[in-house]
Amino acid sequence: MASDRIFGLVVAILALAYLAGAFQIQTSFLSDPVGPRVFPMMIAVVGLLCGLAMLWKPDAEPEWPPLPVWMKMALTVVILTLYAYMLAPLGFLIPTALVAAGVSYMIAPQPAKAAITGICLSVGLFVLFKYALGLGLVALPRALMG
């Protein structure tokens, strides 16, 4: 019970810090009506609500995952951090396919299905972000694009 309350407090504090950071985002006079601050603010509010819920009503007997699960979570954090650094030099498709396949493999260790998942997710997200949402993504490394 105490561990849930401590974790809820940490989540709430981090969400407030994230919200403060979202308020610091500079907006241009040419930005859309919603602006670039709204999505980070929504994430912060959801995080704050989750943290407060854990403070208000903690689990009586929380069941913590075993060590191998913690190791998978740590590896996932490392993979996602590397993903953030791979996006600029390698474009969107290659890093997203690799990361999605890697995380899929950690969830269910089936190499063929993980590879198919990575490729499909990469292409699907690229089409969604690039064409449906109009984001300026680069598909492949600039050296390959010419």
Structural features, described:
With 146 residues, the chain is an all-alpha fold. It folds into two domains: 2-56; 67-145, no CATH class. 73% of the residues lie in helices and 0% in strands. The protein has six helices and no strands. It has helices at residues 2-23, 38-56, 67-90, 93-107, 111-132, 142-145. The radius of gyration is 19 Å and the shape is flat.
Could you tell me the radius of gyration in angstroms? 19 Å
**Oligomer kind:** single chain
Task: Give the overall silhouette.
Answer: flat
> In percent, how much strand structure appears in the residues?
under 5%
Q: Got a strand count? A: 0
* Ends apart, CA distance between termini: 57 Å
- By DSSP (H or I, 4+ residues per run), the number of helices equals 6
Number of domains: 2
Low-pLDDT sequence parts? none
Indicate the structural class: mainly alpha
Mean pLDDT, nearest integer? Answer: 88
What is the succession of H and E elements? Answer: HHHHHH
Largest sheet: none
Residues in helices, as a percent range:
over 70%
Protein name: DUF1468 domain-containing protein
Domain DUF1468: 6-136
Transmembrane segments: 38-56, 77-108, 114-140
Keywords: Membrane, Transmembrane, Transmembrane helix
